[in-house]
Amino acid sequence: MNDKYFLFRGCLIPTRLPFLERSSLYVLDKLKVDYEEMAGATCCVEPIGLRSLAKDTWLMATARMLAMAERSGRDILSLCNGCYLSLEESRQALEDTPTRAEVNTFLGNMGLHYGGHVKVKHFAEIIKEAGEEKVRSLTTLPQDRFRFATHPGCHMVRPSAKLKVDDSFAPKVLDEIATWCGSEAVVGEKWPKCCGGGIAGVDEVVSTRMLEDATSTFRMSGANCILTPCPFCFVQFDIRQKEGFPVLYLSELLALAFGASPEQIGLKYHRTKLP
Amino acid sequence: MGVDPAEMIALLREEAAARGNIPKHFSDEARLFVRSGLSFPNTGMTKKLRKDLELSDLTVPVETMEQLMLIVRRTRLGGLKLE
Lengths: 275, 83
Known about the structure:
The complex is a heterodimer. Chain A has two domains: 4-123, Glutathione S-transferase Yfyf (Class Pi), Chain A, domain 2 (Up-down Bundle); 134-269, Rossmann fold. Chain A is 45% helix and 12% strand. Chain A has helices at residues 12-16, 18-30, 50-53, 55-71, 81-93, 97-107, 123-130, 132-138, 154-157, 173-180, 204-220, 231-240, 250-257; strands at residues 4-8, 34-37, 75-78, 120-122, 147-150, 184-188, 225-228, 247-249. A four-stranded parallel beta sheet of chain A has the order 2-1-3-4. In chain A, strands 6-5-7-8 form a four-stranded parallel beta sheet, with helices on both faces. The longest helix of chain A has 17 residues, at 55-71. Chain A is globular and about 55 Å long. The A-B interface holds A 11-12, 14-16, 18-19, 21-22, 37, 39-43, 45-46, 49-50, 52-57, 60-61, 64, 106, 109-110, 158-159, 161, 201-202, 266, 269 and B 4, 6-7, 10, 13-14, 16-17, 22-23, 25-27, 29-30, 33, 37-43, 46, 49-50, 52-56, 58, 60-61, 63-64, 67-68, 70-72, 74-78, 80.
């Protein structure tokens, strides 16, 4: 559509991790991205649990938000992998004309209509589009203390037929952004492992094993920190991981590189100690 | 041939949910969604953290909740008993 966005914060970031929202706003302001908070947003209908319970509810609720964005002439910018998956899959489902017509019949009761013209973008995609030159030019404090193990999380790249921010095999976008910020990316996962966050509330044992498996790869690589653009992975690594291997959310790295102080972006709220 | 394992797992999950095999974690999440429009609780700690970080209060407007209720009534949220 255009370069104006509704900022979709999701639920996890604004309720439990608002410091990630703070650093994201800092970065978007520095990049002069034209965004507005999305008043009237609800949960994206979380794509693992809620959506499994109720596919119709998911489609209708996400269509409502796509229609709101379209009415305002804005695309949607997501800070969360899960929200990105939920909204982007809905957008793709609504490319089907009969499906869209059926949904629009109901949205009409709310004075809304979705014509199929909104784009859904992931925060990492916005940074990728801003490009190396722009990010390097804003980097006043190169973050050379970090040797990152980059972890895109499942739903920046999978399902690969639908999500195209990066390659699902040997993804490289996070490695590139880390380098633009003056850091080193010492390992990029060839086939990024799931952190186990999606089943944390269902089976703690399996979730923990998956987390340990993902983290063990990082430890062997010589990295001193994990870099992720996903708040669910962030929680797994920062709060549930027992080894104390530190993690940064993507906007935190960019904010630090762009000159934010740790106090400004709430780094004190991390559980693990940063290098 | 032509079978996507991830798609199969997702379909099985949906089928299980349709037959009432729903982990408590997810049914609790659904109840919270219907009550608040969010899938994580907006607590006193949320309010405090947001204030410390100079972020606006997190609110879901009344009109939004009314629209969400219309959607839930129409789609029945997978037949989940919400009382």
